[in-house]
Design a protein that fits this description.
homodimer; 340 residues; alpha+beta; 60s Ribosomal Protein L30, Chain: A; Phosphoribosyl-aminoimidazole Synthetase, Chain A, domain 2; 2 domains; 29% helix; globular
Chain lengths: 340, 340
């Protein structure tokens, strides 16, 4: 074990999980009432009983580089990331978002203004108000431009966990995969594909509310496939739920331009970050209805059933290529730092 | 107006307030239900109606340098800062805290562990659990060591505002002033006084709960005098409340070693940051009882009535030196960057 923090410790994969388990969760006081979802659950957020409902709380820092990328920017990312984490716990009735910015001395006020405008637009789209904030300035060279930390608070009658997959459940993704990571990667690697690629960054709380409103009981688990992509999210869900997951490669919705760019850099789209997508574990008899409902919404047009939960090979992910099956390895972490 | 962000924009004074007003608050959608405390109030946090109670939400980033200082560290500061902001809104029943850390690649895991241990100890002391978090790593040179963003959620039956001062109210401070800022400043300026100086950083939610429990109706306003010290907090409270404040210099509780160090660097302790103190606006007939209650608690031993609200000179702060009166100027911002 390294005695220094490495980039992989922030990359959403196995190394980050180990760091969090060893440093943040171990020994943390377990003071929450029984039934709550706390730090030790390592879910998308926490859930605390409040009267006959649940209060869900989530927090994120956003360090994406560059600040503006095709399809979005750090402001839209911050709002979407937080709203989506809340939604992944089943909490789509947002009480409020918080926004703490840290800015480098000398940063352009115009650029800051543009980011704030984008946050506002995203929060209107998400029907989630930014209710309070904080501003800190660090000296030149002490922070790279701008970092935004957001937290969110929302209410729900039922908490959906990432650990709720059952054998037989179908895995649904709400749209094409790899769009966000590939758009940022293309900019950073100077692939010159920015014209074709665009991040999917969007607040999907309303999409999730729609599907939970109609088929709530059939949705057993949710997680958003951000850092480390669909593969990392499914590894975590499968491991926590004690199931294996078999993915059907032919069903994976991937844009042609993302597939082409991913081949160029040699990374499987399954490992590439998304910022406007969810993975759902759905009771098998409801999967067609769930996919049909998702496709009614502009953010769910390309929703698809992509796999099935099995009893065998707990915690692992298997890809059925049509010609055979292969194990999808668990990454140490997201291939690209500062993807979100 | 500068088109670049300057250090003073994060320094808790007039420049920061102007930036927040111009960039974050202006044009923000006012979607909260009537009676709520939102972004435009620029209070210590937000308050949203939840059934027959109020949910208070607050957020902060902590960028203090160095990470460890006499009397505390960034972990204790992060927990205390958030708990105290909640308490300043009257919300001492904490539902949960969130913790998002951003770490520089190459940072020592041992040091991170020490900071996390300190957060845990402070959260136990504050009776406030850290319920969820986030971890990001930035590359070497992209961030100076470690930054912690925290948010807090708490419940209260009554929201206390920073704008609630009335003419005739007495101003109470819960203890000695300038301890935190002077301890950090001494380290940074190599004054060699670290042996004598110590930060006051502490979660004062329980102290506030004690006084609100006994004298709630008599407490008209609260604010914690962090960046920019007692002077900045009182300028803000006086301006929002439409009163003037006259301080009695002889009543200001200042440790001898803080006074000596402040004279050495030429800064008035009124402008120096505190991290375990509150300023209360108290109905005149209750002030002795409030001070007596505060002094029962270990964190309120040196509580004192230090001033009075007047009708004249709205928004200004006047110091009665015993020989005469002088205006206490409003600073552009805290004299020392990264004080918290």
């Amino acid at each position: 074990m390294s005695d220094r923090i490495l980039l992989k410790h922030g990359a959403g994969g196995r190394a980050m999980r180990a760091l969090i388990e060893q440093t943040f969760v171990q020994g943390a006081p377990g003071e929450l009432p029984p039934g709550s979802v706390g730090l030790d659950a390592m879910d998308d957020g926490a859930a605390v009983r409040l009267g006959d409902r649940w209060l869900v709380v989530t927090a994120d820092s956003h360090v994406v580089s560059p600040l503006f990328f095709p399809g979005g920017d750090i402001g839209r990312l911050a709002v979407s990331g937080t709203v989506n984490d809340l939604a992944m716990m089943g909490a789509t009735e947002v009480v409020g978002l918080t926004c703490a910015v840290i800015v480098e001395e000398g940063f352009s006020r115009d650029t800051l203004e543009r980011v704030v405008q984008s946050m506002r637009a995203a929060s209107r789209e998400a029907r989630a108000s930014i209710v309070t904030g904080d501003t800190k300035v660090m000296g030149r060279g002490e922070i790279d431009g701008l970092v935004i930390s957001t937290a969110g608070v929302a209410l729900t009658d039922r908490v959906v966990r990432d650990a709720g997959l059952h054998p037989g459940d179908r895995i649904v993704v709400t749209g094409t995969i790899g769009d966000h990571g590939m758009a940022v990667m293309s900019l950073r690697h100077d692939l010159g594909l920015e014209g074709d690629l665009a991040s999917d960054v969007a607040p999907i709380g309303q999409l999730v509310a729609l599907v939970l409103g109609r088929h709530g009981d059939a949705v057993h688990a949710m997680k958003d496939p951000t850092r480390g992509g669909v593969a990392s999210a499914l590894h975590e869900m499968a491991g926590k739920s004690g199931v294996g997951v078999v993915l059907d490669e032919a069903s994976l919705p991937v844009r042609d331009e993302v597939r082409a760019a991913a081949e160029l850099v040699g990374i499987d789209p399954l490992y590439i970050a998304n910022e406007g997508k969810a993975i759902l574990g759905v009771r098998a008899d409801a999967v067609d209805a769930v996919v049909a409902t998702l496709r009614e919404h502009p953010l769910g047009r390309r929703a698809a059933a992509i796999g099935t939960c099995v009893v065998e090979r707990q915690g692992t992910l298997v890809l059925d290529t049509g010609f055979g099956r292969r194990l999808v390895a668990e990454l140490e972490g997201e291939p690209l730092p500062r993807i979100c």
